[in-house]
Structure formats: C-alpha cells, structure tokens
C-alpha cells in the first residue's frame, strides 16, 4: 500500500488532532448520520474496507429501513411491506456500531454529534446523509397536520400504507388528484411511476372509470414520453397530466372537503389527494448550516466533502450533486466515493479519482419497465454527466420485460450492498 | 458488385483483426491492479452481487476467466452487445481498468463472503 504526501499529512494530522481525552480505542472515528442508501452504504464500506482500523458509528432513529425505492411497487400490489423493509443487523458483522437514536445537533466546533438522550459521539470525519425534508408550507391549505388526510408518501413506511388504503377506497368513477413536486426533489420519475401503479391497481379492481389528474408545476418531467406512451397503452382515459400553462398554477387545497383549486379549474370531492410537496435537505443538515440558499448542501465533486466544512461529507438526497438525480442508486454511488476518500484521509488507504453512476428503473405496468441513467464525474467544480441514456418510445415487449427483470435484480443487489 | 464488395470486406477484416489481437494482448499482458479493480467494482456491485447470487436479469460476474471478462466489456464498449446500462458503464473504462476489474471479479469465488 502506498501513501501519497497529502494522505500521509492527513493521516498524521488525524493522529495529532485526535482525542483531547485519552481513550482506550485510539482508532480514528467516523460517525454517519442517517441509515438510508447513502449512509448505510458508507458505513458498511468504511468498516469493511478499513479492516477494523476505523471506528464506524451509524446513527439512525429507525430500527428497520423501508426503502422509498420500490414503495410504488407496494402501492401497485407487486410487493408487500416486508419485501421493502430491511434490518441493520448485518452491518454489525462488518464492525459498524449502530445507534438507534435521533441526533439533536452537530457541534462542528467540538467535532461531535449530540444525541437526543444527551449522550454524544465525537468524530474525526462525519458523514451527513439525512435525505430530504418536506416543505409543508409549500402547498397552500396543506401542512403536516393534514398529512394523513392528504398523504405525501414521499418517505416510505406508514405514509405508504395510508396512501394504499386510500387508493383502495377510491370508488369507480372517483377522482384522484396528485400534486407533483417542483425540482429538485427525491426520485424524479417517482411521481409518474406512482401514477402508473395507481392506475394499475384501480384497473385490477375493475374501477376503470376512475381517473387520475396530475397537477404539475413543471413544464416537463422525467421519462415523460415513455410514461405518456405507457398510460395511453395500458390505462386509456385514466390519466391526465396538466403542466403549469394548462392548470395555471395550484392555488390551494382543502383537506376537509377534498378540494383542489387551480387557476383554471376546481376539483371538488376528490376521492384521494396525494400531495408531494417541495423538498429540502434534512433538518440536521440545515441546522448545522451545511446548506446554501438552495436549501441543499454544496459539496466538492472530487470527494463529496461539504464545501462548508472539510471534516464533513454530505451524500445522497441532501447534497447538491450537479447532474445526478436524487436517487438511491446515486446515494449509494456517492457513498462509495466518500468512503474511499475518508479511508484515504484517516488511514492513508489508496484513493482513485471519483466516478459516479446512476440508473432508475420505473414500472409502468407488469413487465413494462423503462430506465434512465448515466455515468458522472467531477468537472468544473460540479458533478457533471459523462454519458446518459434513456429507454426509447416503442421498445419491444421483450425489451421492457427484460428491463423489469433488471429492476428486480437491481433491487436485490443494492439492498444487499447496503445491508449485508 | 460482388467483386467490389470482396476487397472491401477484406479491408474491413484487416482493420478489425489488429484490434481483436490487441484485446487479447491487453487481457494477457495487462496485469490487473486488484485495488483499482476493487474500487471500480463498487460501481458494479450495486446490481451484480459479489456473493455470486443471481436475481432477475442481473447476471453473476464473479469467477470468470479474465480474458472473457475483458472481451465482454469490450463488446459493450463497442456497442455490439445491447444494454444501455452496460454500454454506458463500459464506455469510460480504459483497457487498464477493464483488466483491473477482471482481476478483481475473477478472484472472487461463489459461496464465500466477498
């Protein structure tokens, strides 16, 4: 193993900077906040690849993790809750300490994380991976108090179950209104895959007269041609997408009456309103002032290091990752770059130039899956696309089936990569 | 027409031959850097399980002969094999990087905790 000058200095620095208080365990310490696709992956890779030379602690309030990815497949009835729920247990086999607690604050000055129970965790490097928070005030008339009446289901778990229960209660001929989010948000094709799964489930229940109206603040959306082709083919007359020029802006919602008011039309007595609001980096990142005016965290594209605090790395949905979308695949990819760079800094491990990748598969109907993705790298101070691809309109049934089989394999692969 | 086509094909064959030979050379001469391969492999294992478990349409890629691994990656890079994800992943890999990946994945054995 060779060490370049920078790594040697960093490793030496870490030793000198290490504990003010004598500790029995002199290993450098990495604390990771958030056990999602970014945080769980980073924790595992740092522990696994450092061979025990780094003390790795993952802080995550939930005992289990329900993946947001494939939660639309739960909605459509293709997966049960158990199939998208994962345990942190196996991370311990790699040497990761998992603390199920909530972080109260990050004390950047003293390099420690304060927990809700008043204990704290000191760090030499910190990874912040809290995902997104919802902007509850971004939809007039809606708010956290109404999230069970008009669910968002943009964080998977109980909300996903509420959404499916409400979907199943929609009568034939009923109207569902989806309020789609503005950019940037978690999982760009997610709202439209969700609409596909809603339409599928309604159709399966024989409710072919139900319709889904999408009120979108965006002029266009991810995989638009592919989704619209699929809706026309599989769910004719059931899905109506309205861009901002057509609906003339969302004015308000009324959770008590199921009303949605736009510039051009008022939808009354909607059987289900799914509000997916605007989003921002998780609170812990905002409180620690790791965000800029966009509400997300600027990072150095070569390392995923915070542009604001060099001892902190921000990965996943909370980060400003240039051309990369906010997706589990992207978070997993960024986690591996951060893990390698941290090993380089703390124990002088070999590092290589950062490279990133992403692919998002979306299910439109059984055996009709489309994909979008790309490779990415640092360029001109940001993460830029190297090459991108997207499925084509008019692909054969066999190709779409093959892509669904890839989607199935990817889910098994990434969850094994995160948790096993 | 036929007479004209034959020399064209011969020229094409002649052009193609050195690249195929070069590939064999790459596989046999370039000794893969396993550390580099391990880092690059992190991009692959988001889908391809290093334990050798196959799920859905994501094939097992561990334990392959290195020359075969390199040949398959080149076929994606040249867009002879048809899969957008794999073409995109392969297109930025250099010969050295392919050899490194081949060495790394080639060294993994099924049924072992990799």
- Indicate the CATH architecture of the largest domain in chain A: 3-Layer(bba) Sandwich
Radius of gyration of chain A over all CA atoms, rounded:
22 Å
Question: What portion of residues of chain B belong to β-strands?
Answer: under 5%
Ends distance of chain B: 57 Å
Largest sheet of chain B: none
What oligomeric arrangement do these chains adopt? heterodimer
- Given as residue ranges, the uncertain stretches of chain B (5+ residues, pLDDT < 50) are 1-29
Overall number of strands of chain A: 25
Computed Rg of chain B: 17 Å
Which fold name corresponds to the CATH topology of chain B? Cytochrome Bc1 Complex, Chain D, domain 2
Give the number of helices of chain A: 10
Helix fraction of chain B by DSSP (H/I, runs of at least 4)? 55-70%
Order of helices and strands of chain B: HHHHH
- Mean pLDDT, all residues of chain B: 79
Written description of the protein model:
The complex is a heterodimer of chains A (420) and B (114). In chain A, 29% of the residues lie in helices and 27% in strands. Chain A is α/β, with parallel strands linked by helices. Chain A folds into 2 domains: 5-131 and 282-351, 3-Layer(bba) Sandwich (FAD/NAD(P)-binding domain); 139-277, FAD/NAD(P)-binding domain. The longest helix of chain A has 23 residues, at 397-419. In chain A, 52% of the residues are buried. Chain B has one domain (2-107): Cytochrome Bc1 Complex, Chain D, domain 2 (Orthogonal Bundle), CATH 1.10.760. In chain B, helix 3 crosses helix 4. Residues 1-29 of chain B have low confidence and may be disordered. The interface between A and B is medium-sized, with 38 and 26 residues.
């Amino acid at each position: 193993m060779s060490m370049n000058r920078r790594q040697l200095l960093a490793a030496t620095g870490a030793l000198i900077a290490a504990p003010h208080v004598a500790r029995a365990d002199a290993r450098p310490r990495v604390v990771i906040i958030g056990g999602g696709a970014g945080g769980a992956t980073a924790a595992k890779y740092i522990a696994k690849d450092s061979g025990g030379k780094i003390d790795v602690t993952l802080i995550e309030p939930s005992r289990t993790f329900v993946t947001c990815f494939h939660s639309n497949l739960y909605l459509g009835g293709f997966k049960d809750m158990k199939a998208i729920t994962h345990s942190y247990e196996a991370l311990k086999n790699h040497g990761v300490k998992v603390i199920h607690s909530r972080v109260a604050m990050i004390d950047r000055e003293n390099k420690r994380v304060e927990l809700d129970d008043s204990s704290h965790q000191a760090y030499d490097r910190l990874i912040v991976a809290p995902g997104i928070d919802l902007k509850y005030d971004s939809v007039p008339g809606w708010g956290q108090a109404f999230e069970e009446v008009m669910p968002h289901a943009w964080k998977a778990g109980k909300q996903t179950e509420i959404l499916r229960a409400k979907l199943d209660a929609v009568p034939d001929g009923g109207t569902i209104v989806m309020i789609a989010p503005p950019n940037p948000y978690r999982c760009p094709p997610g709202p439209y895959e969700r609409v596909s799964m809603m339409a599928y489930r309604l159709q399966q229940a024989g409710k072919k007269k139900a319709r889904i109206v999408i009120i979108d603040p965006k002029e266009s959306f991810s995989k638009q041609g592919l989704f619209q082709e699929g809706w026309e083919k599989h769910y004719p007359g059931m899905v109506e997408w309205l861009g901002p020029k057509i609906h003339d802006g969302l004015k308000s919602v009324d959770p008590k009456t199921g009303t949605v008011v736009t510039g051009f039309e008022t939808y009354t007595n909607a059987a289900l309103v799914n509000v997916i609001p605007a989003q921002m980096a998780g609170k812990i990142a905002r409180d620690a002032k790791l965000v800029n005016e966009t509400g997300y965290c600027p990072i150095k594209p070569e390392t995923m290091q915070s542009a604001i605090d060099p001892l902190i790395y921000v990965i996943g949905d909370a980060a400003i990752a240039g051309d990369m979308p906010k997706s589990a695949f992207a978070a997993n990819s960024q986690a591996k770059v951060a893990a390698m760079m941290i090993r380089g800094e703390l124990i002088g491990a070999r590092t290589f130039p950062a490279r990133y990748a992403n692919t998002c598969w979306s299910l439109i109907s059984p055996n009709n899956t489309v994909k979008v993705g790309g490779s990415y790298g640092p360029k001109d101070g940001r993460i830029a696309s190297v090459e991108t691809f997207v499925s084509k309109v008019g692909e054969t049934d066999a190709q779409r089936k093959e892509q669904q089989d890839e989607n199935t394999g990817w889910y098994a692969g990434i969850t094994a990569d995160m948790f096993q | 027409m036929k007479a004209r086509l034959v020399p064209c094909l011969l020229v094409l064959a002649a052009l193609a031959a050195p690249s195929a030979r070069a590939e064999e050379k790459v596989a046999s001469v370039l000794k893969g850097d396993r550390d580099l391969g391990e880092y690059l492999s992190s991009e692959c294992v988001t889908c391809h399980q290093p334990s050798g478990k196959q799920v859905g349409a994501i094939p097992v890629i561990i334990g392959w002969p290195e020359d075969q691994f390199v040949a398959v990656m080149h076929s994606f890079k040249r867009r002879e094999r048809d899969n957008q994800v794999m073409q995109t992943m392969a297109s930025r890999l250099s010969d050295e990087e392919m050899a490194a990946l081949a060495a790394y994945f080639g060294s993994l054995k099924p049924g072992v905790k990799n």
